[in-house]
Every structure is written in C-alpha cells, then in structure tokens.
Amino acid sequence: MKLIDIFQQRKYSLSFEVFPPKTSDVYDSVKTATEQIAALKPVFMSVTYGAGGGTSRYTLDIAKRIREEFGVESLAHLTCVSSTKETVKARIEDFKQAGIENVMALRGDIPTDLQNVDRSGWCYRHAVDLIAEIKESGADFCIGGACYPEVHPESRDQKEDIARLKEKVDAGCDFLTTQMFFDNNLLYNFLYKIREAGITVPVIAGIMPITNAKQVERAIKLSGSFMPQRFKTIVDRFGGDPLAMKQAGIAYATDQIIDLFANGVTNVHVYSMNKPDVAETIQKNLSQIIGKNS
Ligand code: FAD
Fold first, then answer.
1. Which terminal Cβ of the chain has fewer Cβ within 10 Å, N or C?
2. pLDDT in tens, 147-198
3. Distance from the CA of 121 to the center of ligand 1, in angstroms?
C-alpha cells in the first residue's frame, strides 16, 4: 500500500529504518534484526541504499521480504549520483517487478574521490533527476524525498534549499522525510517556511536515538545537526556508561517524539539502525499514544 494512503488512515505513524549489510557474511544478522523490528508491526520500515549503490541487491531483497514475509509495508531507498542511466533504469524495473510501492528517491552523497570532478556530464546530478526518471518509466511508486530542517550542507542558504525542495516536490515527491535533528524548534520553524513556500506534502520527522557517545560525533559529522545544550549535558554525564547512555538517549528521542505528536506532527520515522531493542523500547514508551490510532 502507498504510504500517503496509510498516513491518511492514521492519527499518528511511527516507523523504523534498517540498513542493508555491506557484505554477505553479516546478512543473516541484518535479516534477524529486520524480522525483530518487523514483529513490532510499525506503520512501515525503510531500507537504506548503500552509498554508490554497493548494497543495492540487499536493499531490494530486504524491502521485499519486509512486505511479503513480515506483512509490514516497506520503503526502498534508491540513490542515483554517479550512476549510469542503464543502472538506474534497471533498478527502477527491479523495484517494479518486486512489487515495491514506495521508493525514497535520493541523490546520494558525492563519493569523496569524485568531489572535485566536473559533474556537468553526469546523468543524475540531483534527486530531482531521479524523480523525473521514475516518472518517465511509468512506475506508479509513491515517491519520497529527503529534506533538511537545518539546510543541506551544500546549499548556500535556507531560501535556496527550500526553492530546490519545491522543485523536487513539484517533480513528483508525494512526501518528504527529514534529516535527523535534535531540537524540535528547528523542525517547527522549517515546517512553517516550507508551507509558506507552497510545499504541502506530508513531512515525516526523522528521529535518531543516540545510544552511545561515539554515535554523537558521527551523527553531527553526517548531518551537521545542532546539538542542544540539554543533550550535550546528557552525553557529558552518561557518555562513559554505555547502559546509562543508551537509556538516556532513548528517553531523549521519546521525549522529542512526544513533543512532535503534541504539536501536530503526525508522522515520525525512527532511525533505528538495525537495533530492535531500541525500536521496541521507543514503541513501548509511546504505546498509549500510538495505540489510540484511529
Ligand atoms: P538533492 O535533493 O539533490 O539535494 C542535494 C543538494 O543539491 C542540496 O543542497 C539541494 O538544495 C541542491 N539541489 C537540489 N536540486 C538542485 C538543482 N536542480 N540545482 C542545483 N542544486 C540543487 N544516502 C544514501 O546514500 N543512501 C540512503 O539510503 C540515504 N537515505 C537518506 C534518507 C534521508 C531521510 C535523508 C535526509 C538522507 C539520506 N541519505 C542517503 C543521504 C543523502 O543522499 C544526502 O544527504 C545527499 O547529500 C543529498 O541527497 P538528496 O536526495 O537530498 O539530494
């Protein structure tokens, strides 16, 4: 079922993400984690696409399994940067054949060794090019796109970033999912601005539970997200104690989600990083809220 149709039937939607293995030797552990997260019956599960398409085979395989074996709707990610037309067209066809209904259309990060090369001749320079390719293929996917409450690092400013986002939505995005953020006010401010710019599609808030101190540095590097003092204090205090940090990180994420739901954000996607216990605890923490879901 298409995610936009699911969202219309739900008061609140809570969903989880898994990432595919880079190598076949850890595939079984990812499969187990996927099955355990699917057993929580989230509204949907997303499956990321490895940078440069390295794990593409697994993305499709896992997304298909989530739907067919576990009875949970899936969202398969697809990136296009530095890919050939043939590869991207073949992936779209594979997704179609596998019965995938929901696709997250992304540009992908520019591989480090290609950052300074001339990209003018590339078939796909932005996510909007992939969305156009999907539309041209005739595939009837529900298409998601990424958005950045704190501005994409390559954008000059937020005004330009939102103008590009509007073009992406106009090209055929049915919904948007945000980059992780740790201060809800940044999201509320962003939502106000995009609505003002005429972007009306549903926005899913992406929440990353930080469950160990090392993850903080990685998350900031990856997303450039602002860390509120309240969160820094938690890491300073509990970062050296893995179990305490995990509990505090899950509590912080839960608190963020409750605040989002209370303020009218209805769709939240948890970057659960193949951790069923984290997904389960967050879901339990919200059971009375998401239980009242009609
Ligand atoms: P775009 O929408 O193309 O935007 C990238 C930059 O280009 C922005 O600065 C934008 O303002 C600008 N821009 C857009 N269109 C134009 C235009 N026509 N002309 C000039 N500038 C333009 N990466 C993966 O490798 N695999 C994943 O599975 C994955 N999942 C993600 C899920 C989410 C929810 C998010 C937020 C990110 C994800 N990423 C993933 C990371 C993503 O690939 C990177 O953030 C990447 O740098 C940008 O991708 P995008 O689709 O947002 O690009």
1. C
2. 999 999 999 999 999 999 999 999 999 999 999 999 999 999 999 999 999 9
3. 18
Instruction: Determine contact, residues 188/263, Cβ cutoff 8 Å.
Output: yes
Predicted confidence (pLDDT) per residue in 23-51, tens digit = 888 889 999 999 999 999 999 999 999 86
Q: Is residue 294 assigned to a domain? A: no
Ligand 1 pocket, 55 CB below 6 A? no
Torsion angle defined by CA atoms of residues 11, 102, 53 and 36, in that order, rounded to the nearest 10 degrees: 50
Q: How far is the CA of 173 from the centre of ligand 1 (A)?
A: 13
DSSP 29-52: HHHHHHHHHHTT--SEEEE---GG
**Domain extent for 94:** 3-287
Residue 134 lies in a domain: yes
Domain count, the chain: 1
Question: How many whole angstroms separate alpha carbon 85 and alpha carbon 285?
Answer: 45
Query: Which CATH number covers residue 25?
Result: 3.20.20.220
The answer to whether the pTM exceeds 0.85 is yes
